[in-house]
Write a structure and sequence with these properties.
This protein is α+β, with helices and mostly antiparallel strands and 492 residues long. The protein has 13 helices and 14 strands. Keywords: Membrane, Transmembrane, Transmembrane helix.
Length: 492
């Protein structure tokens, strides 16, 4: 029993070092989270003191809009509007989908839209579109507010129930409402999106746009909320990991179009709707009014282009790799060499096999999802998830148990299995371009890393000498089942 507790403690430390530690360095920092909480508290106080919200009115327009989207038909400051286009929806789609200008955007497939599960947001429980990934601003604009504000007669209502203390929570689904007002002597109202566009893969990483048209036929403008998201195989949900990165991409796609003047037709406007560590309150404004846009066919299904390292970078990496062994050896003491020799003596072929098994299963699910999405058009997103999720939920722990049965030492098996899963998780996020994780995801990943390590340690020969169903194996299995079940049910 004492040995099992020691191994469990080692796994907790290892999970923190391999998952929690890097997450603290790469994800939302404590200061950013605190700032968010302060901003949210201020917003609540302002909503209580104000009887009417302020709407944004563009120049030469009578209609106006609220600078946020809301998951309900109430004034909840959730998803900031970050792109405004002076034009109509057809012009927007033609430009973004124009293959001659490198456009990769396409309208979201109906089955994917319906299958869009709950997502997560920074601002407390009801939005999928706020980002969590901090980005540096790429365009410098004068800090000036070019918009005017008009009041409406609508009285904001508070969200149902108190907001949670943490900044992450379940959303109510994929619907987002925009509040618009047609103009003077008109009443404002809530509306759903006119269209949704995507660029990327449903089971990988994709950019997502929601477009809302002006309620006034005389005012040609479209407001957009853009964000980047990825499919999380542990939770079977899309998780939003940023809005500013997607905004920059949309902005760049407009600027690449030959009929858009970079100097005159693209700028940024301050809407003061920053409510997360990612959204900075600045919206991209694109002038398409009066622009002759030649109709084009919507391009094929979008896929995100991944930048590849140049040959010069590869050459530099090879040079470093060649010199690294000598540099390391020069700094090793005799004690260090003895410890490395002892560790090498404990290494078994099964350890290597266990590493590749976990990596292959975990990353294989991601790759298989992308292949099925692209090649098996007859399968719906739910069917693909039903086919592949058992590999995550059952295949990984079962394969770990079977391989670890051939290993001798409990601690070695536990550390190798836990470390392999942690490496697989980070490799997966690296392939998706995700560099920020919310607190609940970090905690969940740490728990599954510890659980898989306990399963491997309990399956090792020395642990199975007294009983195949020992304490480590039972605790690890129960922990794995409870964590995954709690995640799918929304408790984690």
């Amino acid at each position: 029993m004492r040995r099992s507790l020691v191994i469990a403690a080692v796994l907790l430390v290892l999970a923190f070092l391999l998952v929690g530690g890097p997450s603290l360095l790469l994800s939302v920092t404590t200061d950013q989270t605190a700032t968010d909480a302060t901003t949210r508290t201020q917003s609540q106080s302002q909503s209580q003191s104000q009887s009417t919200p302020e709407l944004v009115t563009l120049e030469d327009s009578e209609s106006s809009f609220w600078e946020y989207l809301s998951p309900k038909q109430t004034f909840q400051k959730r998803s900031p509007i970050n792109v405004i286009v002076r034009g109509d929806t057809e012009d927007v789609e033609r430009i973004l989908a124009d293959p001659d200008a490198g456009g990769d955007w396409s309208e979201i497939n109906e089955s994917e839209e319906e299958a869009l599960p709950d997502t997560y947001s920074l601002t407390g429980g009801n939005a999928s579109d706020n980002g969590t990934r901090p980005e540096n601003e790429t365009i410098d604009e004068p800090m000036a507010n070019n918009s005017s504000r008009n009041a409406t007669n609508e009285t904001p209502t508070e969200p149902d129930g108190p907001l949670p203390d943490l900044d992450w929570g379940n959303a109510d689904g994929g619907t987002r409402y925009a509040y618009v007002n047609p103009g003077p002597n008109e009443s404002g109202y809530w509306t759903t999106e006119t269209r949704q566009l995507e660029d990327g893969d449903y089971y990988g990483q994709r950019y997502h746009i929601r477009l809302y048209e002006s309620p006034n036929e005389n005012d040609d403008w479209v407001i957009m909320q853009t964000h980047s998201e990825h499919f999380d195989w542990f939770t079977l949900r899309h998780r939003v990991h940023g809005s500013q990165d997607a905004q920059t991409k949309v902005e760049a796609d407009f600027m690449k179009h030959p009929r858009v003047d970079v100097q005159d037709d693209v700028r940024r406007m301050y809407l003061a709707n920053r409510n997360s560590a990612d959204a900075d309150g600045w919206a991209t404004v694109v002038e398409l009014a009066g622009l002759l846009v030649v109709p084009t066919l919507v391009g094929a299904r979008a896929r995100r282009r991944t930048a590849r390292a140049s040959s010069q970078t590869e050459s530099a990496g090879e040079q470093i790799a060649q010199r690294a062994p000598d540099a390391i050896d020069d700094h090793l003491t005799d004690v260090d060499r003895q410890r490395l020799a002892a560790a090498y003596a404990r290494l078994e072929a099964g350890h290597i096999f266990l590493v590749f098994t976990i990596l292959a299963l975990y990353l294989g699910v991601r790759m298989s999802g992308l292949v099925l999405e692209r090649q098996a058009g007859f399968l719906t997103p739910h069917q693909i998830a039903a086919l592949l999720y058992p590999v995550i939920g059952v295949g990984i722990p079962l394969a770990t148990y079977l391989v670890a049965r051939g290993l001798t030492r409990r601690l070695d098996a536990a550390v190798v299995a836990a470390g392999s899963l942690a490496v697989a998780i980070w490799l997966d996020y690296s392939l998706l371009g995700v560099s920020a994780l919310p607190v609940d995801v970090v905690a969940q990943r740490m728990l599954v890393v510890v659980a898989l390590g306990l399963i491997a340690g309990g399956a090792a020969k020395r642990a199975a000498r007294s009983s195949k169903f020992n304490d480590m194996l039972l605790v690890g299995t129960a922990m794995w089942v409870l964590v995954l079940a709690g995640t799918l049910l929304g408790y984690l």
